[in-house]
Task: inverse folding
């Protein structure tokens, strides 16, 4: 699903990633731990085709993404990758239902189809009661769970979650992790998440630490 070979990323004289190798199979649930500023977000952006490495090779679903044009990269992001952000990134002027519909609209789905799909997802994960609410009326945990459901709208093969629990309390963190585990188990979605917690027990089947620009499996 994901293969990084000798990936480096520099910003000027600062080397953020220094020869990262990573191979992720379909259905893996991967955690990448590291302190703030270690390069975790940069690594996810490279996997998610939002940034390009300074050198090294990235393959996604068997394709060398370095050979894709901008349009092909955008299409791959929309069709195959779901993103979950630390601070939710829900659009405040849209209802929960409309937020979940948004990726479907960007993919060209008709109004009736995207509403059906969004309601189906909210019902499956027990959040139908939030459909007509606006993000500002939700708790942090509810916002993040809605953000995860939105990431699933186009039935992606991969979900990238950047510190999805860092702004949540323990109870809501558990709810979010339980939801990610359910997505991974039921839908065989490959998940890569990052966290600053070096010792938290996580429901992942593979666990890495990013330190000094290098990735080490634990």
Result:
């Amino acid at each position: 699903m994901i293969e990084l070979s000798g990936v480096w990323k520099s910003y000027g004289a600062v080397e953020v990633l220094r020869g990262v190798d990573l191979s992720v199979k379909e259905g893996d649930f991967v955690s990448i731990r590291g302190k703030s500023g270690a390069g975790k977000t940069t690594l996810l952006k490279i996997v998610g085709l939002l940034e390009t490495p300074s050198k090294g090779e990235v393959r996604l679903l068997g394709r060398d993404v370095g050979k894709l044009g901008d349009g092909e990269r955008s299409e791959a992001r929309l069709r195959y990758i779901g993103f979950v952000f630390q601070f939710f990134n829900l659009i405040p002027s849209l209802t929960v239902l409309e937020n979940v519909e948004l990726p479907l609209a960007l993919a060209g789905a008709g109004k009736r189809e995207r509403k059906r799909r969004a309601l189906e997802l909210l019902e499956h994960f027990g959040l139908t009661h939030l459909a007509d609410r606006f993000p500002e009326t939700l708790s942090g945990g509810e916002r993040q769970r809605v953000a995860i459901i939105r990431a699933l709208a186009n039935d992606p093969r991969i979900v990238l979650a950047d510190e999805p629990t860092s702004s949540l309390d323990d109870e809501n963190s558990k709810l979010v992790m339980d939801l990610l585990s359910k997505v991974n188990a039921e839908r065989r979605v490959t998940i890569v998440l990052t966290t600053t917690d070096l010792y938290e027990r996580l429901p992942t089947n593979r666990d890495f630490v990013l330190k000094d620009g290098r990735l080490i499996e634990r």
About this structure: The chain has a mean pLDDT of 94. The two ends are 20 Å apart (CA to CA). The helical segments are 40-47, 70-80, 96-106, 111-124, 140-151, 170-187.
